[in-house]
Each structure stands twice: as structure tokens, then as C-alpha cells.
Amino acid sequence: MDNESRLIYSLCDYSGEWCKPYKEAGYKVVQIDLKLGDDVRLIKVPSEEVYGVLAAPPCTIFANSGAKWKMLRSISEVLEGLSIVDACIRFAFAVKPMFFALENPCGDLGSYIGQWEYKFNPCDFGDPYTKETYLWGWFNEPIKQPVIPTEGSKMHLKYGGRSEKTKTMRSITPPGFAHAFFEANR
Prior knowledge:
This protein is α/β, with parallel strands linked by helices and 186 residues long. Helix content is 28%, strand content 16%.
């Protein structure tokens, strides 16, 4: 099977950073994100075989980094977040891809969907900062090539707060991880 016939769905990946290595290698990539006009909760099973599914549902509700805001979270916000996570998982189970990975930073998500399969920091893959992140699903583990996290907790220091701009910046998949994940799941 050549790359052009391999279909990758990249869910909740507005920046396109996680699916970028697949696009560059010639895979057919479909990005689904509310900011791009598509709601993951409404996608239907395609007629084509899906080779892989990447999912990065919004983390604001679940992440420990927003712990000081936890008391301000409403039940409807948690339900909204879970509905997106559920849609990503439902889609993966419906299309049965060769690999599926759902990503979210350290936080409460595991208490709703179970123990994560894989843990990493961006510095494990050459991006010199920390942001403890978990993966759920079935996939080949990417090979770590750690560097010293000279930028520390960049997301906390540089992109703190609740504005849409900072949420968008925090949600970008680290390029080193994206490339390593691609190499392990081609």
C-alpha cells in the first residue's frame, strides 16, 4: 500500500502539527476541528479504509495546569469536553485503524477513560521544554531522543491564562514528538 492510499484522520488538530509529517510523506490526511468548521461529534464513518487516527481533544477542562480554575468548571463544561473525547474514541473503534492515539496533558482525563498507555514530555523528543502528556489507544511507541528542557515549563510560563490565543498555543503538538510518532507509526 503506497502512502497516497493511506488515509489518516487528525481529530481536534487545528494547527495540523501532529499530522504534518503524514502530509509531507504523501498520506491523505483529513483534519477535523471546530475551528476548521467540522465537529468531530458529527463525522460519519467514511467508505474508505482508515489507516490511522490521531486525536487531540481539548484539554482545558482536564489538564492539571489549570488546577486553580478547577472550582470554576461547570458540569456542562466537563460534559462538553467528554463528548468530544467520546466522539474521538467512538470514531476510532468504528473505523478500526492500524493505529489510534488520543493525546491529552497530565490531568483528570484518565479518571474518565482509564489509565494512559504512554507518557512523554516534549524534551523527550528534542523540543527543550516540559509538558507531561499522555497517550491512550493502540500504536507503536515513538523512540525517545531526550534533550535538556532548557525552556522549562514553557506552556505555563509563556502561555498561562484562559484566553483563546493561549489555549491555541498550548494545544500545538510538539514537532519533535509529531515526527517521532510518525516514524513509529508509518
